[in-house]
Structure formats: structure tokens, C-alpha cells
Amino acid sequence: MPATASRAVLRQSQFLTRRSAVRYASSTSEAASKAGEAASSAASKASEGLSRVSSSAGPAISSAAQGLGSALRKVGGRTGKVISFVDSMIPPTVYYSKVGLELAKLVFRGQNMTPPNLATFQTFFQPLTNVFRNPAAFKNSSFAPSNILARVRSADKKQLAVAGVTAAEVIGFFTVGEIVGRMNIVGYKGQSEHHH
Description:
Blueprint: H1 3-20, H2 29-73, H3 77-110, H4 118-133, H5 145-154, H6 157-182
């Protein structure tokens, strides 16, 4: 028998003799209370350690990010211009995204809106997935032009009014977006017209 194998057998036999001397007292209430105390102390120590790590890592991460930002700001040329533009756009982007999120929350609460459940999504998108799987079935689907036209003809006045208001809102938001994008109500700012 090689020496390494005999050492492994010897270690295994020592481990087995040590394990046989262990006494298990799991049936008593003392052991259960000690285990509960040990678990709570371990949890408190873990939370303390996590708070220490996060408090010490926070400044280190922020200083590393500041160092990287200052190094990137020193880059010149076109790359430097792009980096400075992106750097200048981060705070307003974060601000307006937070504003938009809060506005969306207010609208959802005000209109008593809730996101649809999974079954609603499945019933709505099932015909679409069937059309993509079998394009010949498009003729019989609810999205066929003849079916859409029949739905419009059978709609009552309330449904038509809701559709009209929604269409007006979409057109209005698109128009306002165009005006903001052009920074002018009519046409684009630019050079004056020249004739050929």
C-alpha cells in the first residue's frame, strides 16, 4: 500500500473516532433555544458586517467613480466632447426620469389603473402569435381588415367617442413633441432660403 493511501486511511479512521464521541441533544428544549439564540446572534453579526462593508465600500466606490470621471474629462478632441456631453446629460436625465415615474404613479392611482394580469396578455397576444406561426390563418383572425371594419361598424357611440379622444391625445402629444424637437412652431430653424 503506498504511503499516501495509508495516510488517507489513517486520517479517515481518526475522523471516525472523533465523530463517535459527539453527543446530539436535539430533543431537548434547551438545545432548541440555544440554536435560536445562535441563529439570531449570527444574523445580527451578519447585518452588522454588511453595514460595515457597505459603509466602507461606498466611499471607495464613489472615489473610484470620481477618479474615472475626472480622468475621462481630461480626454480631448471629439471623444472629450462626447464624454462631456454625456456627463452633462446624466443629471437631467435622472431628474426627468424620476419626475416621469412619479407622474405615471399619480396617473395610475388617479385613474384606478392596474396592470393587466398574465391571462389578459395571453388572450390578447394569442391571435398574434398564431398569425406569426401560420400566416395563412391571418384571413380568419380577429386582426383581419374585414373583422376590424365589422368591429368599427358595430361599435356604439361611447366606444367611438373614447377612440376619438384617444386619437386626439396621440396626435396632440405627437405634435407637441415635434414642436419641442424643432424648437419652433412651424418649420425648422436654419439658414434662410436661397434660390437656385
